[in-house]
Specification:
Pumilio_RNA-bd_rpt, Leucine-rich Repeat Variant, mainly alpha
Length: 150
């Protein structure tokens, strides 16, 4: 129950200072793992909220390799769930979670993410927050998207 109360506290906080608080720097790994466990299955939904998206980013940053892989696999989803990734890439908060995923994922996951993003480059260029993903894609892949801005 303590970890659930801590999760609620983190989700409700309105300052970035709280996210950089003693918990993330000095918290015990098993406490961070409990937070990640509570978020598992809700990553896409939580990523679309201002403060919850910051918590998801911190989980990606501070989780161990297995936890990071689990969270990123949820973001990647199955091919038929590709709409979740597209929704996240266009969202004002979730796009930062996708970018953080690209920074923290393993090589295989990065390749999968870049392939899924490549399919949506033209659509992403039409959205303010999608343009952030296009820029990160170009930076990581070394490719430039072929269409110019409308």
């Amino acid at each position: 129950m303590r970890s659930w109360n801590l999760l609620l506290f983190l989700l409700k906080t309105s300052t970035e200072i709280m996210l950089h608080s003693m918990f993330w720097r000095e918290g015990k790994p098993h406490e961070r793992s409990q937070i990640i466990d509570k978020l598992t299955g809700k990553i896409v939904q939580m990523s679309q909220h201002k403060y919850a998206s910051n918590v998801v980013e911190k989980c990606l940053e501070h989780g161990d390799a297995a936890e990071q892989e689990l969270l990123i696999e949820e973001i990647i989803g199955q091919p038929e769930e590709n709409d979740n990734l597209l929704t996240m890439m266009k969202d004002q908060f979730a796009n930062y979670v996708v970018q953080k995923s690209l920074e923290t994922c393993n090589d295989k996951q990065r390749e999968t993410l870049l392939n899924r993003i490549r399919v949506h480059l033209l659509a992403l260029k039409k959205y303010t927050y999608g343009k952030h993903i296009v820029a990160r894609f170009e930076q990581l892949s070394g490719e430039e998207s072929q269409a110019s801005d409308p």
